[in-house]
């Protein structure tokens, strides 16, 4: 093969992922092994369990990706790996795996920032040109990025406390709904009345693009406790109405901040990524805001919104084209701001 082909490895949270991607943006294979079931009993990701599972599964994920793509390591141009930010045990497992492959197969190694992987996804899926805006909303992140180049990101705003996915997960826990909370809350919300309860829209009264979601969660907790005190328990309609009110508050906050971000940065495209971007009512709230600003609204397919190896392979290719190479001293970093 003359074309660039990269192996991408991702293990920064609870998904063990490997993918093979070409320089033209063709995804030859993308394997994601989710650990959701391993952490289900703990109400959140347990770092030690995650690290051990990554160590056990990384080689298998890589082998499976190569087999699915019908290639071998000899066909690769390089290996890209998430070197941070994330849960350090998992990031280390990925970096060690990638170093072993790079050294063994004599391939260049490229360390990738996980957030850059998400932020560059619109270029992989739709060949979007710079500059563009990215709203990254997941269980661990919430930020507006202005993307001007493969290594040129400006964080123009973000949450000052919880990420929205984390807030969805906590609300689900409060209401005894299954984890991950986002999809459960969305399903309940679809059957509820968003106007029965009045939840706050935090920070909308302040200028700028910063957001806050922890107050929203506390307000939902108070409402739940008040309902339990008044009625002796929660009815199904209460749960549904609370979910609907919560989702509509999150959607309102994201929509208004997106409107402001586009007004201050009139770029042709706004893209979303992260697990929360799977939420149909949030997507539905953002699309007209983009339309109004004359920008294209881009939501990558769900499998590329959530954590995956393809975005890491692609970000590696972009960095590689910039001449970036890492040595065997590449460090795993728990924190790594863009
Ligand atoms: O991007 P992701 O897979 O992992 C990271 O956090 O990096 O995002 C997972 C988060 C979880 O908090 C989950 O509850 C949330 O995304 N999520 C959703 C939906 N699907 C997943 N939140 C709202 N609505 C959804 N449909
Ligand atoms: Zn992520």
UniProtKB/TrEMBL annotation:
Binds 1 Fe(2+) ion per subunit. Its cofactor is Fe(2+). It comes from the Bacteria. GO terms for cellular component: cytoplasm. Gene3D superfamilies: 3.30.420.40. It catalyses: L-threonylcarbamoyladenylate + adenosine(37) in tRNA = N(6)-L-threonylcarbamoyladenosine(37) in tRNA + AMP + H(+). Its EC number is 2.3.1.234. Belongs to the KAE1 / TsaD family. Required for the formation of a threonylcarbamoyl group on adenosine at position 37 (t(6)A37) in tRNAs that read codons beginning with adenine. Is involved in the transfer of the threonylcarbamoyl moiety of threonylcarbamoyl-AMP (TC-AMP) to the N6 group of A37, together with TsaE and TsaB. TsaD likely plays a direct catalytic role in this reaction. This is tRNA N6-adenosine threonylcarbamoyltransferase.
